[in-house]
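User: Teach me something about this protein's shape.
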Amino acid sequence: NLSPRRFYLHPEMSKDLVGAHPPGAHSLVAVSVGYFLEDFVDMWCNQKLHQSWELLFHHSVVIICFGIAVLLHQYVGFALVALLVEINSIFLHLRQILLMANLVHTACYRLNSLVNLGTYVVFRIATLAWMTRWLFLNRHNVPPATYAVGTVGMAIMTPMNVILFYRLLRSDFFK
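Assistant: First, the predicted structure itself:
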């Protein structure tokens, strides 16, 4: 069960990630679908497939899963938990900017690498593990089609994030 501290302002979400969500949450998830759609189209049009296929695949899974939450007005709380993963994206994007600026051998890059790794573990790996656990524990309360989509989504996202974590470790810490 989610601790009340995590959802202090909306404690009902700690018991119901299917139907309960705070005001504005549905809009946030809908805007997130729009962002992922826009980013998907931008990558599709402006990058070579061999450079972007993993992110295109990732975005497809997110668009489908979040799209279900938006259309059904259910699982919005679960989608909010999934958005915690994106906190780490700040540091992944900053890492990319520092690489493009050729600032790899700077204290800023090193600090970002450490923060990136820490937020990766907390906001990607731990969040995905928690979501997988929640889905498994609540499998009897989730319709089979929704459970299948969620299970496939987690089965895709978890290995992708483990592989990316390995690549980050290898690139930034084990050169």
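Now, about its shape. Residues 1-5 have pLDDT under 50 and may be disordered. Residues 107-137 form the longest helix (31 residues). If you'd like, I can walk through any region in more detail.
User: That's plenty for now, thanks!
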